[in-house]
Every structure is written in structure tokens, then in C-alpha cells.
Fold each of these.
Amino acid sequence: MTSAAGVRTEPPTLAELRAAQDRSRRVLLAVLLVGMVAAAIAELVIGPAKISVYDALMALWPSSEPATQASEIVQAIRLPRLLLALCVGATLGVCGAALQGLFRNPLADPTIIGVSGGGVLGAGLVIVAGKTLAPGFLAVAGLFALPLGAFAGSMIAIIAVYGMSRISGLASGSALILAGIAINAICDGALGYLNFIAFDDQLRELVFWRLGSLGRVTWTSLPPAAVLMVISVLLMLRVAPSLNVYLLGEREAVHLGVNVERMKRVIILLVALGVGSAVALTGLIGFIGLAAPHIIRLFAGADHRIVLPGSALLGALLILCADLIARTAVAPAELPIGLLTSALGGPFFLWMLMRYRRELF
Amino acid sequence: MNQMLRFCLLIASLALLATAPARAEDGPKRVVALGSEITEIVDALGETKRLVGRDSTSLYPPEVTALPDVGYVRQLGAEGVLSLRPDLILASATAGPPEVLAQIRSAGVPIVQLSEAFTLDSLLKKVADIAKALQVEARGAELSEKLRRDTQEAEAAVAKMEGHPKVLFIIAAAGGAPMAAGRQTGADAMIALAGGENVFAEHTGYKAVSLEAAAAAAPDAIAMMAHTLDNMGGATGVATNPALKLTPAAKTRRIVAREGGYLLAFGPRLPQAITDFAKAIRSEAAQ
């Protein structure tokens, strides 16, 4: 098909184009995976406590030698934190991408449209009101109580936003963002009231939810929420083909055989489950769900089969990088990671607003 | 026989070693203090040299500010604390979050968390517990005795002072509604010890209040932490605050501002704080 001199004489076939596209996508995913693994190793070996790379990595292998403080730090603090960062980053990345697909709006993000805020409020209610109003629920739900409370809050928030978008066609355009502002304001007001009635120890808990940090995870609190997040991410990846068709338009998707209503319900449920679980363990970490999908689209286009997994990997990579800064910048003290992602994400959001201003306003 | 004798000698010397009084060099050598009153107690015991770290509220005595700061006492990070390679952590009841303390414990570093109430007994218990953890019990007993005596003297002096001034204690006014101290707070306890009357005694904890409601209670003195005074524009700012300017406190400019760790933490400076505060709410006029 090409001449001996390497100059094309015929246009490339469809199969060739596909192959080239697949190759570049594989390269992108591979680069992201390598980056994520590198960041994961960095999370394990770099930290305020000086531990050599060798010691940190050897601490992961089960050994009969007595535990040293270095191995304890890696096993009890850095490893669960790393796993949490991977889960939360992947979840926020995938959920952001799915929400942008669902609303066909480039600015949809769990924090911006109020899904995270709803989760924080749900968790706050469990902390402050749970003991007095529903002690039975706390006893039965145990470690799942906070993730479930956050899940319920996220669910209500996303259904409210989605309902509003259905009523007035708000989804595409700045109106979705305005609805998000309203939801966030309601959640913030309710949280403020919880702050007011909370006792001192509960107050400390509430402050944590607003700032966002990966620093509180333990081996007991990690598994329930991590399982829910992994489920959310894996099931969401399967929605990618339907989301691609949905991109053409709702009616077109129905004609092409996609069960649109079911797809929407699945996305809403999975976003609430994933974001709620993430919020329950970390509090508010903003803008990952906004930034990750957009960076992937810049490089690989709008196909959700690449945007969803790419956003998961990039989300995890971004969270790990932010956490590395959070843990080391002011050592031995620690910055809340939510503060960092907002500081980086705010300007990014502004840039997005400028970029999409024609479509939005 | 010879072997038997040797064995007996060995046992005897071991027993002697075991019963020998602990010396100051024994016990933990790398201590992290979390909480301003904890740091002050360690200092009052003369053991500041053992400290390798402190929280951001520990600002007294001034030389401890040279120590590494592990962050706000309620928002600690486990690895930051562990990076100082402590062999003992003395934590106030407010230290947390609890998960972070659990992480530190699981890394094998003992944490002595001290109970907290705003009373002299609670202070003495903290002194005893910290002295025990540092293995300087004798010095702890001396310090306790001194603190008990001084506090009783301070209380006796307060009892002789005239009047029971009504006090409004404002805890924070930066940006939001000011918070006033209700019952079960360090501020409430200090007002009581100083022979005053808390105008917000019907509330529990620190609550946002409208300054108008506070002014309606006609406080004779307005007290706050030093940084709150700065936030409110100094004594002039408080005295000219529209809601507060008609109160007796604003008219006499009886506005008392002290460092939080000194006035509210119930540390070893408690006796001085009681006398000082009791005098201030009766007579102090801010410039």
C-alpha cells in the first residue's frame, strides 16, 4: 500500500485508521499506567519519615523478622493510604467522566454539581444526628454507616440535579452549574446548622469533611468503602459503549437500541455509590473529576471506551501527586489534600469556562 | 558451693538493680507533646530537653517554638509525628483525629492521652500522669504540691475581691458570627474561678451568638483571646462595635485579652491566670 520510498499513494483504509487509533490509545493507557505505578511507589517510599526505598519495599513482603518502626509505618500508614488514594482517584475520575457524558456538559463534576456536597451532608448527619435519631441504624450498619449515609446524600443530590435538568432542559449549558450552586448552597447551609448544634467532638469531625484528607484511613475503615468504590468503577466502565451512542443524542440512542433510561439509572446509582464512599473516607476532594476526563479527551478524543479507563488511571495519578505534596510540603505537619486540588482545580475550571464559553452561554 | 554463692550474688544484684530508683536519664528520651498545657507541664517538670516535637498550639515557653511543629492538635498527620522518631507521645484529650492516633499506636509508639476537665484536680492528674510517663514522679509530686498551694492561695485572694462582675467571653469573631463561651468550657470555668458570672451560662459549649443578645446581658467585662482582639480591631474596635458600645464593659473599656494557652488551657500557669483574670475583669481598662 505504500511505495518503496515510503510515500503514500492511496488513502489509508478504515481498518488501518482503527489500528493506528488503537495503538495510540494503548500507548496512552500504558503511559498512564506506568505513571500511576511510579506515583504509587513514590507514595510508599517518600514521606516525612525517612525510610530507604529498599526498606519501604521490603516491608510489603511478609517476613518473619520482628517489625521495625519503618515497616510498621509502611504497613499501617502508607499502604492503606496508597490503596485509598488509588480507589478515590479512580472513582472521582470515572464518575466525573460519566457525569459529563450523562449531562453532555463538559463542566459536570461531582463537587461542582453538588454530588460531593450531598455526600458530606449525609456523612455529617450520620455523625451528628445518627446517635440520637437512629441508633439502630448505626448498630446494624457499623463501619458501613458513614459510606451509606454519604451515599444516600450523594444520591439525593444527583437525583435533584438530574430532575431539574429534565424539567427545564438545564443539563446543557450554564444552568446545570447554577443548579449545582444551589445544591451546594443548600448542603452548606444544612452543614452550618449541624455545626451549630454539634458538640465539640462532632464539630471536629465536621471540619474534617469540609477540608478533605487521605490521612485518617485505617485497615478497619478502608475495606467497606474500597469495595463499594471498586464496584462503582468496574461497572461504570461497562457503560462506555452506551454513553458513546448517547453522545449523539437521546432520541438517536434510543433508535440505535440503547436502553437509555436504564443507562441513566445505572450511572446515577454508580456515581452516588462511588462518590459517597469516597467522601465518607476522605471528605471533600474537588476537581479531580473535572480535570482527569478533560486531559484524556485532549489526547484521545471523546470515545468513552478510552475516556473512562483513562480518567480512572489519571484520577489516581493526580490524587497521588497531590497527596505527595500534601504529606511532604510542610512536614512534619500535613496539608489537607482538598486544599491542594482546589488550588490547582480552580484555575483549571476557569480555563474550562473560557474554552467552552460559546457553548455554555 | 562456689557456684551456688555466685548464683545467689547474681540474684541479689539483679534484685538490687530492679529496686534501684529510676534516674532522670531513664525513661523516654524523645517525646512529642500535643497540646499547649501538655508542653507547659513538661516544661514545668524541667524536662523540656526531652521534647523533640510539639503541636502548633504549644507556644509557651518561647524556647519550645524552635521545636518541629507537627500541625494543629486536632488535625494531626500520623507519619509527620512518627518522622520525629518519638518513643513517647503525650497527647491532650483534644488531640486527634482518633484514627491518626490509632495509626501512631499501630506503628508501635506509646501514646499517653490525658483526660481533660477544667479543674485544678484535672491539672494535678495531668501532672501526675505526665511525671509518671517521664519517670520523674518525685518532681511531679513537688510540682503538684506547689500548684495546689498556689491555686488555693489564688482562690483565697479572689474570695476577698469585691463583686461578681458579669463577663462575656468571645472566642472567635473572624469573618463570621462571634462565638460566646457557654457552660462546660475553659472560659466558663475560668470566669467562675475568678469570681465572675458568665452571661451565657444558659448555653453549652461555644455557640454563635448575636452581639445584641450579648449586649442585652450588660456584661461588666468582655474577655477574649489575644488574637480575637486583633480580629475585632483592638480594644477600640470592641468598644465602638455598634452592638457592644452601650454595654458597661465598653463604657469602662474593661476589655480583657489574654493568650488562649495561658487563660483557657488549665496548664501550670493556672494560679497566675486566676489572679490575673480576677483582677482584670474587675479593674482592667484597655488603652
Note: Chain A touches chain B at residues 47-50, 67, 69, 72-73, 76-78, 196, 199-200, 204-205, 207-208, 211, 213, 215-218, 221, 327, 330-334, 336 (CB under 8 Å).
Amino acid sequence: MSTVASSSQLTTAEPRRPWAVSRSTRLLGFGRILAFAIAAFFATIFTPLANVDGWAVAFLLINLAWVIGIASKLGAKERRDAVLRVVITSLAVLAFVPWLSILVTVILKGYRAIYPGYFVSDMRTSTPDDELNIGGAGHAIVGSLIMVAIATVVTLPLGILTGIYLTEVRGRLTFLVRFIVQSMAGVPSVVAGLFLFATVVKSMGQYSGLAGGLALAVLMLPTVSRTAEEVLKLVPDDIRSAGYALGARQWRTALLVVLPTVRAGLSTAAILGVARVIGETAPLLLTSLNTNGFVWNPIGGTVASLPTYIFAMFMYGTDYSNARAWTGSLVLLALVFFFFIIARRLGNKSALKANANRRK
Amino acid sequence: MTIVETPEPRQMMVVYSRADRIFRRIVTGGALTSLLLLGFITAFLVMRSTETFREFGLDFITGSEWFSAGEDPLGGAVEGAVEEVDKSVFSIGPMIVGSLVVALIAMLIAVPLSIGGALYIEFYAPRSIYRVLVSLLDLAAAIPSLIFGLWGIQVFTAIGVRWATLLNDRLSFVPIFSVEFENFGRSPFVAGCVLAALVVPITTSVSREVYSRTPRDLIDTCFALGGSKWGAIRSVVMPYGKSGVIAGAMLGLGRALGETVAIYLMLNLVFRYSFEILDSAGGNVASMIALKFGEATDKEISALIASGLVLFIITLIVNMIASSIVARTTPRA
């Protein structure tokens, strides 16, 4: 260090990154892709390939041909590498395209029927085929929220208790409980609906929001208890030992030391469960059906919900009812994403906290 | 010589205080409730479907006829159809086969796409969009299946029918691609494509998760030995993540088998064994239940519950295989 500092002719070398892709190369690559896209467009005109999907196929083929052409100068290993890069990239694009298309479709078709009244009015005084500036899905939103609330109230304590059982109590049935809860995640939603129909609906003699909420609870329980278990597993054992060292019994340690550290994580568990079930349609078709007005009483007959509202509007089959269905989808998707993003926020926070704890 | 008496080793034992015992009992009770819930569902399904199984036996699973003789919703038989009441026949053979066929089509499309997608996100995507892609993937897995169904009918069917026409034009000598009537909409093939779109996010996110846990050292070793990126993926990443991908695919399969509304909207249900996947006639247990449920008689409800039980058992087996693969092969972090 000192020798360098003492020399008078000191020049600081600019750090260079010879491996970095230069600006001109990047521009060239971009231009190449643009040229291929245009070539693919002409291919759809002059060859049997047609439409968007035909264009995509042509684009892929041109890309592949170019890569093979370029790579023919290279060795076998590099050639395979280059070709597979194109193949994997196009598989990934294919995997992402459908639901990007869904996102765009829902927004483009869904914004048509949105007006402020859509969120507060119901369909009692309007038919699905009426102009889009009357009627709305307020009753469906309320119904969905009520049923999801019922499901959450039932599931959250059970899920958290199951999580505590699997991580803190660790009784003899740990393996069995974990296995069963995991396989319960596979209960087909329509079967949950059938079950609640044949028990609650039959014994009450009418369809109800309660039955719908309970059907959602059956589907929500595995998600909540598994997430709760994962979160509780992240709590470092030091914290538990600290609790015991201070003379706390197991119940005090669990309730006053372990649980508070994962409050955010448990909220994540609940919200993920909500996001999972709020779009479920099949069980609600069998338990709560649909109705045209606001229903606040969960045991007072049929209740509308966003999924069944969308379903009914779609099945009605006219242009206006269709627009209502898409707007309903937009609202539903917005709700799902809203819950999901909150869960992620909370999850990140709790992960940070767990890490911080670990570092101490 | 002296005899050294070794003291008896002390027995370590945990003695829980009374408060602890109560706490443990409450928690165990909560866990057992979850356990019993599944047991109760199963027991209930079995109980309510015995009537159907006793009447139709194995024919319920192999037969291909569903006929509900007239019965008044109020309980009595419709006038003039009294003798018909007992002629009801319920069997779901084509529905089971149809469920498997559609799910198989979906998996054949979804698995390569998912592997490609997962590899791309983990190893090819620019670092700047990596996080965005991962969150988008999670969001995609949360899109309700109803919306997939709507999209399938109003957007995808046009494209799917074109592919089906193409397959039929070029490959109609293959039995499964031949059709009786050239009407390709609402066929198992198109429904399978939509189902694939629905399964891809699930399978991709599980596979990506496993791929991302590949030890960095192994990959670097591969590069140090002169391997290319594809070489590293093929010889290190793919073998390492194989079981995870299988588990993800099984999870997706379970989802595909139990899917109701998307298939309900995308598929014509026909009670006839058919392996012509481009024909607009297929079967699916879950959507059959939703379809027949509306005006079902009491006896038919029992048959529907029996169908639910069959579906439940199939998906349960698939899920158990998946979770045992995961449990057996989860790489230790």
C-alpha cells in the first residue's frame, strides 16, 4: 500500500468489466428480435400459419433456425447449450402467456361495467340484461365476505392449534395429524360442498351462508394449519429455552413467548387461506346458491357470493350480463391479489424478524 | 478386590404441571378436531353412498348410464311413473375415464411447460426481473379457477379449436384424433389445454422452489469442469430436483382431477365411453356432480355422493403419493 502511495505517478485504473454485454451488442440483439418478429408476421401472411399462435410458432422457428445457424460453427456442447436456451425460454414464455392473457382479458372486459354503484347496489331491481349503469354486485361482495369471515372464524383457531400441536406439544399423533392435514388439502372442492349440503343444508332444511362458510372452512383448514406450522417451525429453539430458563411452564412459553413472535406469520396464514377460498365456486353452488339482494343473515336462506354471481351472470349469456360477469371477475381478482399482497408484506416482515432473532 | 456398585442411572422424565396438562389437552383437542373432520367427511361419504353401492355394485364404477326416473321433488313419485321409480340407473364409468383423460392431457402439456418455466426463472431470467417473476408466479397460482373457465370459453376456445382442427386434419388416422362430427369446441382436448394453464403455476412454483435449493457448489463445480449451463442443469439441477418436480406434478394432478367449474364450462358431459379427445364429448366426475346436483332426487343425491367418494379416493391417493414423495426426498436445508 505504502509503496503505491509514495510513487508520484499514481493513476487509478478504471475498473473494467470485459464480460459485461456492451451497449451495441444489446442493441443488435434487440434489433435482431425485432427483425425476427417482423419476419414472423410475414410468415403468417404467406404460410399456412395464422393468427397470434401461428405468429408465435413462426417466431420460435426463426429464432431456433438462427441459433442453429450461428452455433453450427461451435462445438457440439456449445451448440446444444444455445439451442436449449431458446427451447427453455420459449417453454417459459408459453407457460406465462395464458395467465398474462387472463389478466389482460379480465381488465379489458371487466372495466366496462364498472361504475361507483356497482359496489353498493344489488340486482333486486334490475335484470342481468339491463343497462350497465344500474344494478351491481354489492350483495355478492358482502355475501362473499360474510362466508369467508365464517370460514376464518372456524378455521383460524383450529389451524393455529394444529400448528402448535405439531411444533410445541409434539404428541404421539404428530405424524398422523401432519399426514392427514396434508392429504386433506386434496379434498376436491365439490366434495366439500356435497358434504355440507348433505349435513347442514339438509338438517336446516334450507341453503344458507353458514353452510357455504363451513364448506369454505373445510377447504381453508389445510392451508392455514400448514402455513401456521411452517411459521412456528421458524421460531428458534433459543427463544423457547429462554422462556423455560425464566421458569415459565410450557403453556406460558408457548402462549406468551412463542406465539407473539409469529403474530405476523399467523396473519399470513389466515390471509393465504382467505385468498385460497374466496374464489371457490363449486362448493357454494351446492350450499349457498345465489340471490339477488343483500342478505346479512347467514342462516336465512340463500346468499349471493362473488363466484356464484359471476357464474350466474355468465350463464345468463347476454352481452350485458357477460360484461357484469367480467367485472365481477375483476373485483374478485382484485380482492385475491389484495389479500395476497398483504400476506406477502406480513410474511416478509416476520421473516426479517425471525432472521434478526436468529442473529442475536 | 472391591465391588464397585454402579448407581442405577436416573430416569429422566418430564412431569407436566397441571396447567401444562390442560394446555396440552386443549391443543391436542384442536389438532384432533382437524383429524376427526377428515375422518367424519370420509365416514359420512361412505355411509351415504352405501345405498348406491349396494344397489349397483361394481356396475356403478364400470357402467355408463345415468338415468333418474321421475320423482317428485316433494318426495312422492310422479303420477303415472310409479313403476318407473325403481328403474333409475346410476353409473359413472365414462366420467371417471373422462376425468383421467382430461387430467392426463393437462399434465402432458403442463409438465414440460412447468419445467421450462422453473428452469428459466431460476437460471436464465435476468436478475433484475427475477423477483418480479417469482411474485407473479405466486399470484398466478391464486387466480380462481372460475376465471380460467371464463377465459377458456371466451378467449382460448377459438385458438384451441384451431389446433384441434389442425390435429384432426393431419393425424385423423390416429384413433384418438378422429372424430365423428367436426365440432371441436367443448372437447376434452380444449378443456385439457385450459386445465393445463390452470395447473402450470402450481407445478412451476413447486419445481422452482426445489431447483432454487440446488447447492451452489455443485453447479459451480460443474462449470469449473468446463460444463456449459445446459450441462450443469442436466447433470446437477435436474437430478437434484427430480423428486420435487414429480411432487409438484402430482399436486397439479390432484388439482386437475378435482377441478369443477372450469371443466363445467369447458366440456360437454356425455355418458358414453369415448377416447376421441377432439370430439366435443367427454366426462368428468366433479363437474358431473355440479351439473346433476340442481334437480337431483334423493336417490340421485346418494349416487352423487357415491361419485364424490370415488373422486375423493382418487385424489386422496394422488395427494398421499405426492406428500410421501415430498416427505421422503425433501432435501435438508
Note: The beta strands of chain B are 66-67, 89-90.
